[in-house]
Each structure stands twice: as C-alpha cells, then as structure tokens.
Automatic annotation (TrEMBL):
<dbReference type="InterPro" id="IPR003593">
    <property type="entry name" value="AAA+_ATPase"/>
</dbReference>
<dbReference type="Pfam" id="PF00664">
    <property type="entry name" value="ABC_membrane"/>
</dbReference>
<feature type="transmembrane region" description="Helical">
    <location>
        <begin position="279"/>
        <end position="302"/>
    </location>
</feature>
<keyword id="KW-0067">ATP-binding</keyword>
<dbReference type="GO" id="GO:0034040">
    <property type="term" value="F:ATPase-coupled lipid transmembrane transporter activity"/>
</dbReference>
<feature type="domain" description="ABC transporter">
    <location>
        <begin position="335"/>
        <end position="576"/>
    </location>
</feature>
<keyword id="KW-0812">Transmembrane</keyword>
<dbReference type="InterPro" id="IPR027417">
    <property type="entry name" value="P-loop_NTPase"/>
</dbReference>
<keyword id="KW-0813">Transport</keyword>
<feature type="transmembrane region" description="Helical">
    <location>
        <begin position="132"/>
        <end position="155"/>
    </location>
</feature>
<feature type="domain" description="ABC transmembrane type-1">
    <location>
        <begin position="23"/>
        <end position="296"/>
    </location>
</feature>
<feature type="transmembrane region" description="Helical">
    <location>
        <begin position="56"/>
        <end position="75"/>
    </location>
</feature>
<keyword id="KW-1133">Transmembrane helix</keyword>
<keyword id="KW-0472">Membrane</keyword>
<dbReference type="GO" id="GO:0140359">
    <property type="term" value="F:ABC-type transporter activity"/>
</dbReference>
<feature type="transmembrane region" description="Helical">
    <location>
        <begin position="161"/>
        <end position="179"/>
    </location>
</feature>
<feature type="transmembrane region" description="Helical">
    <location>
        <begin position="246"/>
        <end position="267"/>
    </location>
</feature>
Length: 588
C-alpha cells in the first residue's frame, strides 16, 4: 500500500523528489538504531548470566547504548528535514499542477461540482496527503523498520523461539485486513459527509445576507444541522465499526506472548534454551507487539490518504478543452457565428427536457463596431458572449474570430485577443494596483493610473486610505458595485485587447454611477470589436448592430431605427422600457 501511495504521490506532483527518498532511508536507519540497543541488552544479559560482568563492561555497554540513542537522534535530525522539504516541494508542485489543470477544464465541469466538494478536494484532501508525506510516512517507515530488525535479530538468536513470538501474526493480519474492509464503507461515507458539511457551511456563510433578509434562518439552520449531524455520525462510524477488529488484531498479536512463555518454559526444562535467551525474548517481544499494533492502527490513516489521493487524481484525469496542435492566428477581429448549436450539459444525461441555450444561430459581428445583444431573460445572451471567449465549446457549428475557428486559435492566444467585463466582477485580495494589473502583469504604475483615469476610477481610488496601494478584501467587499465595475473596465483598458465582451452592468447603480460607467465603456469601446449585453435599450440606441435573441434563437437583427420599424420583439421591449421610465418619472 505504501508503494502504491508513493507512486500515486509521484504521479500527482509529477516530481520524484530525491530528498524524500533519502529522508526515508534515514527513517529506516532510525528504526535500526532503535532496535540496536536490544543487541547490547542481549550481550549484557549473557554477561550477567555468565557472571563475567565487570564495571568496565557495564560502562562500555552503557556508552554504546547512549551512542545508539544519539545516533538515532542524529538520523532523525537529518532525515526529518529531508522528508519535510521533499514532501512540501512535491505537494507544492502537485497544487500548481492541479491549479494549472483547473484552468484548462471546460466551465461546464465547474458547474457540475458542488463548491464544498471541490473545496474539500483542494484543501482537506490535499492537506491529508501532504500530512501523510510530511509527518506520517517517516514515522511509519521507522516504526515498521524497528520491529522488522528486532524480529531478524531474534531469528538470529533463536529461530524456534522467534517463530513462536510471531505465532499470532497470521491471524492478527487477517483481523487487521478485516478491520480495513469493515472501515471501507464508513470511510467513504465520512468523506462524502465531510464535503457535504463543508458545502453546507460555505453556502450558509455565503448566503447569510439572504438568509437574514428572508427570515429563513430556521429552515437553513435545519439543513445545516442535518448535514453536520450526518458528518458527526459518519465520523463516529469510522471509529466504531473497525474498533472490535482492531482490538482483535492487538489481542491476536499478543497471543504469541502466551505461546512464548509456554514454549520457553518447555525448552528451558529440556535444556535447549538458556535463561538469558528466554529473558531477552520476554523483554523484546513486548516492544515488537506494541510497535506492530501502532503500525497496524495507522494503516487506517493510509486508507484515508489513498481515498483522498484518488479524489484528487480524478481532477487531473478530467478531460481538458482540446487545444490545437498548430494554433492559427486570426486575420482580423470580426466574429462569425456559423449555425451554432449549444446546450448546457446537465448531470442527468437522460434529461431531454432542457432546451438548447442557443439554437442554429448564425450572425456576423463586424470588426471595430459596437454590437448589442438584447432579449428577454434566459434568451441566451450571456451564453452567446461566453462562447466567443470559448468558456464552453459549441456542440455544433462554429464560431470564427478573424476567419479562424476559436478552437483552432488556442486558448491562450484567444484570451489575449479578448477582454471581458461582466456584471459579477471578481476582485482578488491584494492591492487596487495589483487588481488592475491583472489585465497586463508587466504594466507600470503610470500605465495602471492612466487606465484608471480613463475608466473613471481614479478619483474614488485616490480617496481610498492608501490610494492605489489599498489592500482590497477578498471579492472587493468594501467597494460599491459601480466602483468594482470601473476597476474591471480599467483592467480591460489596460489589457488593450482588440475584442471586448461586456455585460452592461448599470442596472443596479444610481444614475450618476451609471453615467460614469457608460463614459468608461465608451472609452473602452473606441476602435474595438465590442459585443455588449444590453439590459437598458436606451444605452444601445447608437449601436452599429443590435441582435435580438429569444429562447436561444436570433429573431431580429439591425439598427435601432430599423428594428423599431419592424415592430417586432425589440419594438415591444423598447415601448415597455419607455413606459416604465415614464411611470417612474410620474411616480417621482
Ligand atoms: N451554467 C449553466 N448551466 C446550465 N444552464 C445554464 C447555465 N447558464 C445558463 N443556463 C441556461 O441557459 C439558458 C440561457 O441562459 P443565459 O444566461 O445565456 O441567458 P441570458 O439571456 O443571458 O439571461 P439573463 O438576461 O437573465 O442573464 C437559460 O435557460 C439558462 O437557464
């Protein structure tokens, strides 16, 4: 099992750190040095029974024993740091590999994961494996090496008696194997319950504002309690179910001791055994049993680690978005949808009731022009924009940027061509400067400030306690929605990509912030191919082209004036929005 775990660990990190192997060799030496004083004890006992013990001998044995202890400490002193540095380097590498792999997975995969479960795999599972490598493996190896050396030594002294010492081991191992078997189901249950509880807690914390505002504390609390109770029960089961078999393992191991006493007395009586040898066996058998018991108990931990490793490895086995063998460079920045068909994958593959999000959609988005996408909620506007950035791959048809299928451009090159500004602005914990710099990591401070100016963000940034060096909380919770938007526009300005995808996000901000955001967007749009999802039709009156979607289909297309004259869905939406505005004015 250890070998298998090591192989999977090496596979996970893609690294075979020699320090870890050297550290484990020192752990074996530590086990040998823990067993060595027993050899001295044997010689000492020989001397006692032969009556040849002199003070000089006693001093020599004493010194040699002290040396064994010191050398053992030295072995630990050298081996442990090697194991730690090897294990942490490998797990660091494993984390990087996983993070890199996640970057290449299709977005649909993330949608199918429960955030708590994915979180558990990336935190507690990885920590468990890391703990296994850094703290457990060395102790396990030296803990196993010590009884192995002792038994070899006992076999050398008197093989008959040594075999008697080991008499209980076959049955004991059977009991241990059975305890593992019995623990298999509860440990799966425990890991599932643990990630469910983690998900529930996460959801609870993230939704605390909604929970409070809707006064549904009781209901959510009940769900949380149920999940935590299940976790508690699962934890208990994992301890209780294998407990009798582990106890049997310890008991069966020690039956050898009983046999040892009986066989020892027998062979002592017939003169084939010396009292010193029997005494030595009686003294040394106990640490052998104790150590084997400890090692047996810790195999349960190995089982957890193996399960955790498997769960993590599943992430690495997930299929990534296919990348072109020879990426092609787009010739221009117009975007063409050619009979695009796309449906979100659902967990239940048999579920045919979900209509496609986009259905046989064809259109052309000209370069360096502003194209607005409008339509009722759920029409497929965000989907259309996300597909341009290849967050998902189309099921049928193709999307071409500059004449090249987005699947042939290569993700990295495509993302260099495209900047996105969406309603949910993700800000990372770090300074304002760093957050804007995400758009262009090598940008100078002056470039960042220039982008912030153009994004109408400079004034509010300057008003922050440390200006551009203010450290934002995770998610930028201390900023308003409009401020977060303008930071995101500054990022996009800094990135200076020729294609700009944006989700008009002015629905929830006050008129002055809306005007600022609109100005920032106008600045951003200049000279670029812009696709904007518009919720306020008044903001897209001057768009070069407006695409009207409904239920995943492109039903109208044209300019504002042209679409009004068609008297279709766009005209109705326009009239409704105008009426709503007048109603607001009258009410005011
Ligand atoms: N990640 C997803 N997984 C599954 N279905 C999704 C996902 N995202 C959107 N959908 C579904 O696809 C359809 C189109 O959604 P989309 O978000 O593109 O519409 P939209 O026009 O942008 O809506 P809104 O204006 O409300 O944001 C909807 O039926 C929606 O429920």
């Amino acid at each position: 099992m250890i070998r298998e775990l090591m192989q999977s660990g090496f596979r996970l990190s893609g690294l075979r750190d020699a320090r870890l192997l050297r550290g484990l060799t020192w752990a074996v030496a530590e086990g040998l040095l823990a067993a060595a004083p027993c050899l001295l004890l044997y010689l000492l006992l020989q001397g006692v029974f032969a009556g040849s013990l002199t003070p000089a001998y006693i001093w020599t044995y004493g010194l040699l024993m002290a040396m064994c202890v010191m050398l053992r400490m030295l072995a630990a002193r050298i081996g442990m740091p090697l194991i730690f540095s090897g294990a942490y380097a490998m797990m660091g590498q494993a984390r990087l590999r996983i993070a890199d792999h996640l970057r290449t997975l299709p977005m649909g995969w993330f949608g199918r994961q429960r955030s708590g479960d994915l979180g558990a795999r990336l935190t507690s599972d990885l920590e468990l494996v890391e703990h296994l490598w850094s703290h457990f493996l060395g102790v396990f190896v030296s803990g196993l090496a010590m009884p192995v050396f002792l038994v070899l030594f006992l076999l050398w002294i008197d093989w008959r008696l040594a075999l008697v010492v080991l008499a209980g081991i076959p049955l004991a191992l059977l009991a241990l194997a059975w305890s593992q078997r019995v623990a298999a189901r509860p440990s799966t249950r425990m890991m599932t319950a643990s990630s469910t509880a983690q998900s529930a807690l996460l959801e609870y914390v993230q939704g605390i504002a909604v929970i409070r505002s809707f006064g549904r504390f009781g209901m959510v609390w009940q769900h949380l309690q149920t999940d935590l109770h299940e976790h508690h029960q699962a934890l208990l089961a994992v301890e209780i179910k294998p407990a009798p078999w582990l106890a049997a393992y310890g008991f069966l191991l020690e039956t050898g001791y009983l046999c040892l006493v009986l066989a020892g007395a027998w062979w002592l009586a017939d003169g084939t055994l010396t009292p010193s040898t029997l005494l030595l066996f009686l003294v040394l058998a106990l640490p052998v049993y104790r150590q084997l018991f400890e090692v047996g108990l810790s195999t349960l931990m190995l089982r957890f680690a193996r399960r955790a490793l498997t769960r993590i490895e599943h992430i690495l086995h997930e299929e990534t978005m296919p990348e072109p063998a020879t990426p092609k460079a787009p010739q221009g920045h117009d975007i063409v949808f050619d009979h695009v068909h796309f449906a979100y994958a659902h967990d239940d593959e048999q579920d045919q009731t979900h209509p496609p999000a986009l259905f046989d959609l064809s259109c052309r988005i000209p370069a360096r022009q502003l194209t607005a996408v409008v339509g009722p909620s759920g029409a497929g506007k965000s989907t259309l924009v996300h597909l341009i950035a290849r967050l998902w791959d189309v099921d049928d048809g193709a999307i071409r940027v500059g004449g090249v299928d987005v699947r042939d451009i290569g993700t990295h090159a495509l993302h260099q061509q495209v900047a996105m500004v969406f309603q949910d602005v993700l800000l990372f914990s770090g300074t304002v400067l760093d957050n804007i710099r995400i758009g262009k990591p090598d940008a100078s401070r002056e470039d960042v400030i220039e982008a912030a100016w153009r994004a109408q963000a400079h004034d509010f940034i300057e008003a922050l306690p440390q200006g551009y060096d203010t450290v934002l909380d995770e998610g930028g919770a201390t900023l308003s929605g409009g401020e977060r938007q303008r930071l995101s526009i500054a990022r996009a300005l800094l990135k200076d990509a020729p294609v700009l995808l944006l989700d008009e996000a002015t629905a929830s901000v006050d008129p002055s912030a809306e005007a600022q955001i609109q100005r920032a967007i106008a600045e951003l749009a200049r000279g670029r191919t812009v696709v904007v999802i518009a919720h306020h039709l008044k903001n897209v009156r001057y768009a070069d082209q407006i695409l009207v979607l409904n239920k995943g289909r492109l039903i109208e297309q044209g300019t504002h004036a042209g679409l009004l004259s068609q008297n279709g869905l766009y005209a109705r939406m326009w009239t409704r929005q105008q009426q709503a505005q007048q109603w607001r004015l009258r009410a005011a």
